[in-house]
Structure formats: C-alpha cells, structure tokens
Amino acid sequence: MRIISLNVNGVKAAAERGLFDWLRTQDADVICLQDIRVTAPELEQDPYWLDGYWQYCFEAETPSQGGVAIYTRTAPKAIIMGLGFETADRYGRFMQADFDKVSIASLLLPSGRDGDADLNQKFKFMDDFAGYLNKQRRKRREFIYCGSLYVAHLKLDVKNWRDCQNEPGFMAPERAWMDEIFGTMGYVDATREVTRESELYSWWPNSEQAENLNLGLRFDYQFLTPGLRRFVKQAKIPRNVRFSQHAPVIIDYDWTLSI
C-alpha cells in the first residue's frame, strides 16, 4: 500500500502546477490532501477528479481557509468528518476513512505562523487533538494520520535549528507535544522508522534563498499506531516534486487495504 500525503496550499494552484498529472503516475492506493481551499462539489470536477479513486472532501466553513481530502482506490466502510471541536471542524482540518482493520486520516493543523491569534489557535488544537489521540490508541484497530502538523520534532528535522527555536514550528512547547505523541502515547513517525537521513524537509519559506540553501523544516508526517510499525517499508519526501511550499510525503507499507 502506498500513501501520499501533501499540503497543497490551495488545490487550484497545485493543479495548475501539474499536481494531478503527477499523481496519475504514482500508483498510490490512498492520497491525502490538506489545505485544499475548495468546496466538495468543486473537487468533484476536472481537473481534480482522478479516475479509479473514491473521493471525499471535508471543506472549511469558509472554503478559502482550509479543508482536507482523501482519494482511495478501495471504497471505505465509513467516512468520518471532523473531530467535534471548533478549532478543527470550522476549518475542515480532519477527515478519516475507515477500512477493515485500519483507519487513514487527512489532517491539517493551524500553522501558528500568522500572528498571535493563529498561534493560540494552534496550541488549543494541539491540546484538544492530544486528548483525542490518547483515546484512539486504546481502540482495537490501527490508525494512520497523514498531514501537516506544522511542527518539526527533532533538530535533525530543521536546517537552522538554533535560529528557529523561538519561531512557531520549532518552539519548545510544540516539540514537547511531539515528544508526548511519539513517546508517552507510543505513536510511530513512519518516516523516521525507516530513515535517519538529514536535510529531509517537507516545507520551505517562500524565498529564493530558502530554496537555494535548502533552509527547510519537516512539518509533514505520516504517523501511526505501533501495531503498524513493522509494515513500514519505505519513506520518501522528494524535494524536487513541488506543487506548493510543501513536498509530498510518500510511504510504502507492506499492507493491503480491504473492507
């Protein structure tokens, strides 16, 4: 099973840059998109339609401000939209597809980079979502969460970590939150399960210097319940594949979806 996750920063612009032509060549079983910025009816039209996939969208109340989507070759048993708290549901930040033994979610956190209000909203979301994850790990099924957390966990995940310690995305409280998820709760960072490669980033500031010097951070993840750890085969974040400020996270699993 191949899962591709990508924050598109607006699916219209990403499509114009060739996103869907590229996706058609990738043989993905599941595609999770974040920050789509369109309505569900819009996503069902060309050029966003992918033949051979079931397609689902959870749009934000104001479609230009978020939204997530899931494309899957296998029809899910159920689709869950939202988490039940405002910081998630108002902006279309979470959607989950349930299959036989595994659930796959598309997830979008606030970036926290657009002023104090956005950062406060991010911390509120993180608190609420941590409570949700703590409950989910007790369920008798596996989970894969795909998306933009807008937090780089380790120094390894940041080009200039010393300069970023007081910036949203690498602040101590954010990293402590990641420690809780990947430590106390036991969730697994799929990428780091199979590679310790340095300079493996998924987001870059919008500047020519950042691009040229690879001044990136790893903000985008697929993370999973520990029962799936041994099924992670390969992880890639191809820097040269860019349809937004983010690069896609591509994970191959030794797993076959069923309903």
Automatic annotation (TrEMBL):
<dbReference type="InterPro" id="IPR036691">
    <property type="entry name" value="Endo/exonu/phosph_ase_sf"/>
</dbReference>
<dbReference type="InterPro" id="IPR005135">
    <property type="entry name" value="Endo/exonuclease/phosphatase"/>
</dbReference>
<feature type="binding site">
    <location>
        <position position="7"/>
    </location>
    <ligand>
        <name>Mg(2+)</name>
    </ligand>
</feature>
<comment type="similarity">
    <text>Belongs to the DNA repair enzymes AP/ExoA family.</text>
</comment>
<dbReference type="Pfam" id="PF03372">
    <property type="entry name" value="Exo_endo_phos"/>
</dbReference>
<dbReference type="GO" id="GO:0008311">
    <property type="term" value="F:double-stranded DNA 3'-5' DNA exonuclease activity"/>
</dbReference>
<dbReference type="GO" id="GO:0046872">
    <property type="term" value="F:metal ion binding"/>
</dbReference>
<feature type="site" description="Interaction with DNA substrate">
    <location>
        <position position="246"/>
    </location>
</feature>
<dbReference type="InterPro" id="IPR004808">
    <property type="entry name" value="AP_endonuc_1"/>
</dbReference>
<protein>
    <submittedName>
        <fullName>Exodeoxyribonuclease III</fullName>
    </submittedName>
</protein>
<keyword id="KW-0460">Magnesium</keyword>
<keyword id="KW-0464">Manganese</keyword>
<feature type="domain" description="Endonuclease/exonuclease/phosphatase">
    <location>
        <begin position="4"/>
        <end position="239"/>
    </location>
</feature>
<feature type="site" description="Important for catalytic activity">
    <location>
        <position position="220"/>
    </location>
</feature>
<dbReference type="GO" id="GO:0006281">
    <property type="term" value="P:DNA repair"/>
</dbReference>
<dbReference type="InterPro" id="IPR037493">
    <property type="entry name" value="ExoIII-like"/>
</dbReference>
<keyword id="KW-0378">Hydrolase</keyword>
<feature type="binding site">
    <location>
        <position position="246"/>
    </location>
    <ligand>
        <name>Mg(2+)</name>
    </ligand>
</feature>
<keyword id="KW-0479">Metal-binding</keyword>
